[in-house]
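Data card: per-record layout.
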Amino acid sequence: MSRIGKKPVQIPTGVTANVEGQTVKVKGPKGALQLVLHDDIIAKMDKGAISVDPRFETKRSRSQWGTCRTLIANLMTGVTKGFEQKLEITGVGYRAAVQGKNLQLQLGYSHDVVYPIPEGIAIVAPKPTEIVVTGSDKQKVGQVAAEIRGFRAPEPYKGKGVKYAGEYIFRKEGKKK
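The structure for this 177-residue chain is written out next.
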């Protein structure tokens, strides 16, 4: 039994949600999102909440039960508060700047890396060594942050590169004479 799946997802004030078959649509102040649930899951609306139940008593449907409930909860959080991912840039001469609809990164290559900002995502560079990715879709925010980090992942010797805020970089000792 999924302890997370048992709890119904409350619909906050100012948010409209409806369930049509396997599709859950949510609309709120930060935008509209939708999710197509797994075939093994049934979603129902009742008393200002969405409850999720497994369709069958199989291992796969039980494993999808809590996951689908959490995805619906993320939709509710996304359309009310939104999601944010912070990235830090470490290294001499490494910097970032937002220019129009592009993020321009100088990461020690012979050329600047230009990353087009996707639809539904806002990227801000409050400092040249800091990037803040915000949006209403948690998966999209995480994917964009991972792509930006992938341009120059932090290396273990000096820690240079793009890392998540609060991420610990396992450091190695250099060569000895």
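Known properties of this structure: Residues 59-80 form the longest helix (22 residues). The two ends are 58 Å apart (CA to CA).

See the next section for split statistics.
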